[in-house]
């Protein structure tokens, strides 16, 4: 069964304390691995798409990487505004439907 | 429009009533998706529209759920005879040719 597992479930960091979030997937026929952030009461906000092992994407303090079985979201010197739930759905199948894990809830304390 | 919009933002209904949720996708996007996000659960795929093709309804949880997309743009998700377990946030997303999906703010449905 296609599934996505994210770890840790929750992470609390001090401002400036770098860390990484993990996303492991068992989706066959992978069409793309996405990273989104979701703030409370809002829809997911697109961050990155990764298509092949070895690919990396960066945006401000965030860097996403992809291997054959995992993706990592590295957060460098986070700020309180980076607090959110981070989600890494897979896209599979002809309809490109996204398969979601439960996310990592990140809290960055000032 | 600038982004995906959904209405209403909140809906409270009584068990057994029908509800309609609306989604306006990004202009020009050919693909439209509905997802459901229940408390403590990951997003759950419901239905997918792509252009004029027959929709993929494989994620609809029961025959009480239906959706249509008129004129390749606006979509309506209808839930008949609502049950308490239907309470969730319903999210709509659109994409250009089925690639990156952009989400609306969601409709929070509460069934009393």
Task: Detail the topology: elements first, then pairings.
The complex is a heterodimer of chains A (110) and B (112).
Chain A: E1 4-7, E2 10-14, E3 19-25, E4 30-38, E5 45-50, E6 56-59, E7 62-66, E8 70-75, E9 84-87, E10 90-92, E11 97-99, E12 104-109
Parallel strand pairs in A: 2-12
Antiparallel strand pairs in A: 1-3, 3-8, 4-5, 4-9, 4-10, 6-7, 7-8, 9-12, 10-11
Chain B: E1 5-7, E2 10-13, E3 19-24, E4 31-37, E5 43-50, E6 65-69, E7 75-79, E8 88-95, E9 102-103, E10 107-111
Parallel strand pairs in B: 2-10
Antiparallel strand pairs in B: 1-3, 3-7, 4-5, 4-8, 6-7, 8-9, 8-10
Report on the architecture of this protein.
The complex is a heterodimer of chains A (110) and B (112). Chain A is an all-beta fold. Chain A has a single domain (4-109), classed as Immunoglobulin-like (Sandwich). Chain A contains no helices and twelve strands. In chain A, strands 2, 4, 5, 9, 10, 11 and 12 form a seven-stranded mixed sheet that branches. In chain A, strands 1-3-8-7-6 form a five-stranded antiparallel sheet, with no helix packed on it. In chain A, a hairpin with a 2-residue loop joins strand 6 (56-59) and strand 7 (62-66). The model of chain A has no long low-confidence stretch (mean pLDDT 91). By secondary structure, chain B is mostly beta strands. Chain B has one domain (5-102): Immunoglobulin-like (Sandwich), CATH 2.60.40.10. Chain B contains no helices and ten strands. In chain B, the strands form two sheets. In chain B, strands 2, 4, 5, 8, 9 and 10 form a six-stranded mixed sheet that branches. Chain B has a four-stranded antiparallel sheet with strand order 1-3-7-6, with no helix packed on it. The N and C termini of chain B lie far apart (34 Å). In chain B, 34% of the residues are buried. The mean pLDDT of chain B is 93. At the A-B interface, strand 4, strand 5 and strand 11 of A face strand 4, strand 5, strand 8 and strand 9 of B.
């Amino acid at each position: 069964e296609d599934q996505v597992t994210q770890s840790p479930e929750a992470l609390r960091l001090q401002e400036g304390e770098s860390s990484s979030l993990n996303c492991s997937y068992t989706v066959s026929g992978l069409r793309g691995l996405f990273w989104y952030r979701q703030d409370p009461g809002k829809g997911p906000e697109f961050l990155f798409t990764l298509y092949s092992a070895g690919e990396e994407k960066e945006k401000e303090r965030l860097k996403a990487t992809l291997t054959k079985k995992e993706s990592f979201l590295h957060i460098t010197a986070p700020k309180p505004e980076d607090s959110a739930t981070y989600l890494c759905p897979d896209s599979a199948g002809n309809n490109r439907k996204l398969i979601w894990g439960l996310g990592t809830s990140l809290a960055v304390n000032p | 429009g600038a982004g995906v919009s959904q209405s209403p933002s909140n809906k409270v209904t009584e068990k057994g009533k029908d509800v309609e949720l609306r989604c306006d996708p990004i202009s020009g996007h050919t693909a439209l998706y509905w997802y459901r996000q229940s408390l403590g659960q990951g997003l759950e795929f419901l239905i997918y529209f792509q252009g004029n093709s027959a929709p993929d309804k494989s994620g609809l949880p029961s025959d009480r759920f239906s959706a249509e997309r008129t004129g390749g743009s606006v979509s309506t998700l209808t839930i008949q005879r609502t049950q308490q377990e239907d309470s969730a946030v319903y999210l709509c997303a659109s994409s250009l040719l089925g690639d990156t999906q952009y989400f609306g703010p969601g409709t929070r449905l509460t069934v009393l």
